């Protein structure tokens, strides 16, 4: 798992965009009232950063065309997005938020 930030630096309603390395797509980490969630940062409809979107409950709205994604599953809930975004494991260890990136399809583990 990769460290993201201290939990107190990511208040409820906030998000942060992280880059782990040049081969891993950027990840958006969200702190909602229901907990922490991490998804690929790029909207599956068009090249927009979901970490810059609007969070309500367990959903994030893309800032470009208002596609809505369920942060729990990555599934789009309305058009124009049709494909889900990948979700990632996220947790807190010793007060630090950590993310374990999901393995990309076709990647060698």
From TrEMBL:
GO molecular function: dioxygenase activity
Signal peptide: none
Pfam families the UniProt entry points to: Rieske
Residues annotated as domain Rieske: 2-99
Superkingdom in the source lineage: Bacteria
InterPro entries linked: Rieske_2Fe-2S, Rieske_2Fe-2S_sf
CDD domains: Rieske_RO_ferredoxin
Keywords annotated in UniProt: 2Fe-2S, Dioxygenase, Iron, Iron-sulfur, Metal-binding, Oxidoreductase
Name assigned to this protein: Bifunctional 3-phenylpropionate/cinnamic acid dioxygenase ferredoxin subunit
């Amino acid at each position: 798992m990769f460290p993201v930030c201290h939990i107190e630096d990511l208040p409820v309603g906030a998000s942060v965009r992280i880059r782990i390395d040049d081969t891993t797509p950027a990840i958006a980490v969200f702190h909602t009232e229901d907990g922490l969630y991490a998804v690929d940062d790029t909207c599956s409809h068009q090249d927009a950063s979901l970490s810059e979107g609007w969070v309500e409950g367990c959903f994030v709205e893309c800032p470009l065309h208002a596609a809505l994604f369920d942060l729990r599953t990555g599934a789009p809930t309305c058009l124009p997005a049709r494909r889900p975004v990948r979700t990632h494991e996220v947790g807190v260890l010793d007060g630090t938020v950590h993310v374990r990136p999901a393995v990309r399809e076709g990647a060698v583990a």
